[in-house]
Amino acid sequence: MHSPLTRRGFLAAGSGLAAATALPALSGCSLVAAADSDPHTLVVHSQLGTTSPGSPTYLAGLDRFRKENPGLKVKNLINGDDLAQVYETSRLARKEPDVVMVNLYDKTLAWTDVGATVDVKGYLDDWGLRDRVRPEALAAWTDAKGRLRAFPYFATNWPIAYNRALLDRAGVDAIPTTGDELIAAARKLRAKGIAPVTVGGNDWTGQKLLAQIIQTFLTEDEARHVYSTGDFGSRGAREGIEYFATLRDAGVFADKAQGLTSDLMTTQFNTESAAMESAMSSALAKVPEKVVRHTEVGGWPLADGAVHDKPTILRTYTLIGFWISPNGAKKIDAVEKFLRFMYRRDTVSRFIQESGRDMALRSDTVSTDFPLVAAAQKLGSDVSQVLLPDVYVPPAATQPLITATSTSFTRGTSAAKVRAALETAYRSA
């Protein structure tokens, strides 16, 4: 796989990022300011700080950290989906922040390999923090060469949310567990003017649900091969695509799903315009209380001949981690104080209690104020877990897969054309 983050890739990325995009994204701070060389100033670059779930808890945590460490200043830089692009630009100038809080996905997959961030395994062990991390999270954040890319932090469960009140109104007696039951439920819901399954068919939410459905007939090893190579020609992959196309053309998904986004999906479910959605923990935490009262979580219904014996969910431990940059390695004492604080049990508990976040760290705290998140955490033998493909998809194929996803959710697109669109997304990888 050709990495887009080689020196040449970095330069190409930097030249393509207009100042109008990069500089305002740093909330008025220049890249020079972002790279404060003062050893008593820690620069943290995060997606938390605006409307992202957990932002109030994070900002309050920074205030507590500053009070506990009066001799250490903390600059907090905030970006949304363009964080990786902005970080790469700052790294090219050798003025990158010290710590980066972002998920393992797309561009970030190559960061440690090309020296944009450092292997943190030694720090984790030297600071005695390994036992705080769930083993599954350590495995997910470790690359093929044994390097730990970042300190794991946020995780997520990704079940299907079912609005029982809407299902009851349509005469659907039980949550569907098979494809036939799902199709029958969709027909009854549509007869009542209710959208069945809402999904962001034009963004990452649709991509994840599509991948989940395709894996109906794939073992974990087979799924890993499919999403690493883009080879959707195996019998299991073809059967999964055919299952998806059957559900789509039977009207299971909301109208014009190929044009919906994650925000529109969430709005449809939360306003009770749709009866079902594929909802990660952060979405479950936003469901209004009046809807929560008659919502249940479970897995995606299976087809006959599935390799799984229970409806499926997604789960990942790579949602947000703390990456250390080469600049951060020069201020490692300050970074250690910050990481120890963020790993403290009381800090972790606040994210669970106040924000409904799932964590990649060990904790006995339960999201009592976020009952759907707590219910998803408790899903055990009633569901089967399938592979989240993020860490296996080559970075160059990530965005093309979103385009292929929109094509896939367009009703009438044949299974063969869906397969071709998915495989085409890998040709530049």
Automatic annotation (TrEMBL):
Keywords in UniProt for this one? Signal
Q: What is this protein called?
A: ABC transporter substrate-binding protein
Task: Indicate whether Signal appears among the record's keywords.
Answer: yes
Source organism superkingdom: Bacteria
Key word Signal present in the record? Answer: yes
Secretion signal: which residues?
Answer: 1-34
Checking PANTHER family in the record gives: ABC TRANSPORTER SUBSTRATE-BINDING PROTEIN, ARABINOSE-BINDING PROTEIN-RELATED
